[in-house]
Design goal:
The complex is a heterodimer of chains A (about 90) and B (about 200). Chain A has about 90 residues and is mainly α. Chain A has helices spanning about 10-20, 30-40, 40-60, 70-85. The model of chain B has no long low-confidence stretch (mean pLDDT about 90). By secondary structure, chain B is an all-alpha fold. Classes of the chains: A mainly alpha (about 90), B mainly alpha (about 200).
Chain lengths: ~90, ~200
């Protein structure tokens, strides 16, 4: 067990709690222990920031332009469907 | 990036038969749809089939779509149904392995503390060169994620659905959804870190 003292978290535990922390799903006491650890630990503070940056960067991935072929393919798909529908 | 029309605006135009609106919607959602479809089918070609089926389903269902759910959750629901039909019938509800860690255990000492200091990414995050390299690295890392992690990360962090929506869409418990999200995000963080190391900062 990594737990040295009952109430103190170690870094290796903190990294496993980051998502629960960000999701707001830690219990109150775990949240307090988590935040207390961060106060005294610049490394884990940076880790949490890295996770936040990762999430934010993932959120920018979204829009890619379709290739001209794909665009044509979907335009054709749409037209075929409309013709079939009009009949 | 051009001005983004909302999904609702595009849907209105699509209902009027505007094919450009259709193509806009497709380019908006296709990358994520393909990534999610890959979770259900064994090959990229089948994923494309499933996605195309889903778009046909969208056009067909347009009049029935009432806008009570967001277009986004609707299209993913249609996709997942199509992908399940196209895909293998393998059981998907495999138990989550319990031995995956967010960070390589070797990076901690026996007391569980970081062996080497962890750096702040604040300046990197604002650097446009890094941003370009990260976008590339993240796209690749996302495609390399185990399928179920990829699916959750795409829906949550790329598409911005809520945890509740994702649980509902994928039939996951809240806890399993969080575990998959955690593992996926942790791997992506690792990919960005490796990218920085390769740039030799």
């Amino acid at each position: 067990m990594l737990l040295s003292r009952k109430h103190d978290l170690v870094c290796q535990q903190v990294v496993e709690m980051v998502t629960d922390y960000l999701e707001g799903s830690l219990s109150r006491s775990d949240r307090r222990r988590f935040e207390r650890h961060l106060k005294g630990c610049p490394n884990c503070t940076n880790y949490l920031e890295q996770m936040r940056i990762t999430i934010a960067t993932t959120g920018t991935l979204q829009v890619e332009d379709l290739s001209p072929e794909a665009e044509q393919e979907f335009t054709d798909l749409f037209r075929r469907w409309r013709e079939a529908d009009d009949r | 990036m051009p001005d983004m029309e909302t999904d609702a605006e595009l849907l209105t135009r699509l209902r009027d038969g505007d094919e450009a609106a259709f193509v806009s919607l497709v380019s908006r959602y296709n990358p994520s749809l393909l990534r999610v479809a890959r979770t259900y089918v064994p090959s990229p070609a089948l994923a494309e089939d499933a996605v195309q089926e889903a778009w046909i389903g969208v056009i067909r269902g347009l009049d029935r779509f009432e806008g009570r759910s967001s277009f986004k959750t609707w299209i993913f629901r249609v996709l997942i149904n199509c992908a399940r039909t196209v895909g293998t019938k393998e059981p998907r509800h495999l138990a989550l392995s319990s031995d995956e860690t967010a960070v390589d255990p070797l990076r901690f000492d026996t007391g569980g503390a970081w062996v080497k200091p962890l750096e702040s990414w604040e300046s990197e995050a604002d650097d446009r060169m890094v941003a370009a390299s990260w976008t590339h690295a993240l796209g690749a890392a996302l495609d390399d994620l185990p399928p179920r992690q990829r699916e959750v990360v795409v829906l949550r962090d790329v598409e911005g659905l809520s945890g509740t929506e994702v649980c509902d869409l994928l039939g996951l418990s809240e806890n399993n959804q969080r575990v998959l999200l955690h593992r996926g995000r942790s791997r992506l963080r690792g990919a960005l870190e490796s990218d920085l190391e390769q740039r030799g900062r």
